[in-house]
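F.,

This is the one I mentioned.
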């Protein structure tokens, strides 16, 4: 039973009919400068659209462009949204792949391998820790441009072209390299492929087929054929912009990119000391069924999917204040989706408390096979930051077929702070042009953990957001419950007087140099209020939450060190030896060095455990005193 009180909805009976899942890691490479979650967020809150003309190495646009839509086999648009990085760059040796195999591989496979590595790193999960685990991999992909390019000249196709360009291999190659043993499949439901992949990853965990799930979406534009085919269907915007929910909507603009997320049971994430980015409360998928045309969406199916997703988990729809819509910018699809959202949520909203609606496609275009995961990652960031970014500056006037007031919707035009205190909840939808739909419900990490009595678990939620601070939030990934408290020392003094060991590693010597350069750039732009706390977290993450490779370098960060100076103190790169054994020997000259080594007690579990075991042995021999007591 939902009741309204002012601008709040309450449901005393909301339960956990589905086991909550935690998003513990994510990584992305989206168009232009959106190459990290931080850069992506900056683009979103600034309301930027990054459409550009087709680069010459992707398509000779002058040879294919024709402004007249009625002419087949040409394109009416001149641009799209492109990844900035050179797609030929790939660290093949790191992934154990030969040069010949790498050249035969679809860039989608290459980017997927790299992005999953960064997502695991973002989650603080060393790959040696997850190897051999019951981890599922579901990849969303829609296009096979690299395959099209290779079969144009079959006599010169690489020997390994079939394995290199088969879309099944996007998911399977990830499972192979990382030694994941759960279900592994590439999903093609067109534009809903990657959100369907997230849903399948969730289902694999709920169903017991996996203990952890990796979902990924990718899309790369390399050949003109797909663009021509989509334009022949009248789907593309001649302006090369996705005017989501705008009266100028005239089709969507294509985009490319890759995104990945790592998912666990919330209880497992808490037990493992993971940082929780957001909590998945429910996910579902369905199909439009019979509509007047195969490409025409069904409002009824969309409404049914939203309601079913909430009902199966026993969730209160009145708590939801943000909806990340599919919102492609088509004149038919946008009004249908807006009416579906309004029909589903209107009973739970008041006129003065509308549901806020946005679409990431207005910023980075329609990433097709990766579009769903782009919207999913955006929703996670919205919940973390507590700020709802605008649709891009493309949005001028809402489509007149969308009655925002009646539907109790607000198509976001300027950035706003999350409108209520307490739990933040958001919905994400994604639709395939063949009628395959997916929907996911997310809650923010902080309030989810607080309500479950797990406040000490690491998260990145900005508890009291402010528009002036939306770009200045810093929190390191990793285990945040580490502390310096013990019975011998003031914990604040201890944290600020103990030097921190920062360790970096790479698979080759040149990699250490690249790490130093990238960290130097990162630290130079960093602004933190508590550098000592940051150093503590950084040391923990680098030493305990990163994969360790053969080449190492380190810095001993002493009290008062400037973060920006850290990379100038890198030790020379050194190749580690196999199975090193380390022992500490103390001289026992306590008369010369009072309390020698005492600071290690409480800070280092191995040291404390050794003293406890020694004390037990001495007592067995009849010793009347206790080492720790002394």
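My design for it:
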């Amino acid at each position: 039973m939902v009741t309204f009180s002012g601008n709040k909805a309450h449901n005393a009976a909301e339960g956990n009919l589905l086991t909550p899942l935690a998003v513990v890691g994510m990584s992305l490479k989206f168009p232009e400068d959106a190459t990290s979650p931080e850069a992506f967020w900056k683009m979103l809150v600034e309301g930027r659209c990054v459409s550009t003309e087709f680069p010459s190495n992707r398509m000779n646009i002058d040879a294919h462009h024709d402004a007249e839509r009625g002419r087949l086999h040409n394109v009416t648009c001149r641009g799209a949204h492109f990844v900035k990085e050179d797609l030929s760059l790939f660290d093949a040796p790191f992934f154990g792949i030969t040069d010949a195999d790498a050249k035969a591989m679809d860039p989608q496979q290459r980017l997927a391998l790299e992005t999953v590595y960064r997502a695991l790193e973002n989650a603080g999960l060393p790959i040696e820790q997850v190897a051999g685990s019951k981890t599922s991999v579901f990849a969303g992909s829609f296009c096979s441009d690299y395959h099209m390019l290779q079969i144009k000249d079959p006599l010169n196709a690489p020997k390994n072209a079939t394995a290199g360009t088969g879309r099944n291999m996007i998911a399977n190659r990830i499972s192979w390299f990382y030694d994941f043993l759960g279900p592994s499949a590439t999903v093609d439901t067109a534009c809903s492929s990657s959100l369907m992949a997230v849903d399948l990853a969730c289902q694999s965990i709920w169903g017991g087929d996996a203990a952890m799930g990796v979902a990924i979406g990718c899309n790369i534009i390399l050949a003109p054929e797909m663009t021509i085919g989509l334009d022949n269907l009248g789907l593309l915007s001649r302006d090369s912009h996705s005017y989501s929910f705008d009266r100028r909507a005239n089709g969507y603009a294509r985009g490319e990119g890759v995104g990945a997320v790592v998912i666990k049971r919330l209880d497992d994430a808490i037990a493992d000391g993971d940082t929780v980015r957001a909590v998945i409360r429910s996910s579902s998928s369905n199909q439009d069924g019979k509509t007047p045309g195969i490409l025409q969406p069904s409002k009824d199916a969309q409404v049914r999917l939203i309601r079913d997703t909430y009902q199966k988990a026993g969730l209160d729809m009145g708590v939801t204040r943000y909806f990340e819509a599919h919102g492609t910018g088509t004149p038919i699809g946008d009004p249908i989706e807006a009416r579906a959202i309004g029909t589903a949520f209107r009973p739970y909203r008041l006129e003065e408390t509308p549901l806020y609606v946005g679409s990431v496609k207005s910023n980075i275009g329609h990433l097709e096979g990766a579009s769903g995961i782009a919207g999913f990652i955006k929703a996670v960031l919205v919940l973390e930051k507590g700020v709802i970014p605008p649709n891009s500056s493309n949005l001028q006037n809402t489509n007149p077929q969308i009655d925002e007031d009646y539907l109790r919707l607000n198509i976001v035009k300027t950035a706003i702070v999350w409108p209520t205190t307490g739990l933040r909840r958001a919905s994400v939808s994604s639709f395939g042009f063949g009628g395959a739909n997916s929907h996911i419900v997310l809650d923010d990490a902080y309030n989810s953990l607080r309500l479950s009595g797990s406040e000490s678990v690491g998260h990145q939620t900005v508890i009291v957001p402010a528009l002036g601070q939306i770009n200045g939030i810093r929190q390191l990934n990793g285990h945040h419950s580490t502390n310096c408290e013990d019975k011998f020392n003031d914990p604040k003094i201890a944290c600020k007087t103990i030097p921190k060991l920062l360790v970096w590693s790479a698979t080759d010597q040149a990699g250490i140099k690249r790490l130093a350069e990238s960290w130097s750039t990162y630290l130079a732009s960093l602004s933190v209020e508590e550098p000592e706390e940051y150093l503590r977290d950084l040391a923990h993450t680098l030493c305990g939450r990163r994969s360790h490779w053969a080449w190492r370098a380190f810095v001993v960060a002493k009290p008062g060190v400037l973060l920006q100076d850290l990379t100038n103190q890198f030790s020379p790169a050194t190749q580690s030896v196999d199975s090193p054994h380390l022992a500490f020997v103390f001289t026992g000259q306590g008369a010369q060095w009072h309390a020698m080594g005492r600071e290690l007690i409480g800070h280092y579990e191995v040291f404390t455990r050794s003293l406890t075991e020694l004390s037990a042995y001495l007592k067995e021999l009849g010793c009347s005193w206790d080492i720790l007591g002394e």
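The longest helix spans residues 107-122.

Talk soon.
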